[in-house]
Fold this sequence. Notes:
Elements: H1 10-33, H2 39-64
Helix pairs in contact: 1-2
Amino acid sequence: xxxxxxxxxxxxxxxxYLVICALFIVEAYLAYQxxxxxxxxxxxxxxxxxFMFVFKRRFRKKRED
Length: 65
C-alpha cells in the first residue's frame, strides 16, 4: 500500500506563511506611520500570504484523509 502522506517538515512551510503575513502587517503599519504609499502593497502581500497558508493547509489535510 502506498503512503500518500506528505513529510512532517512540510508543515513548517505552512506556518512560515503566517510569519510572513505578520511581517507584512507590521511593515504596513510602519508604512502607515510614515504616510507611505506602500501600505496597500504590504496589506495585499499579507493577504496573499494568509491565503497561501489556508490553501496549503487545506490541501495537506485533504491529502492526509
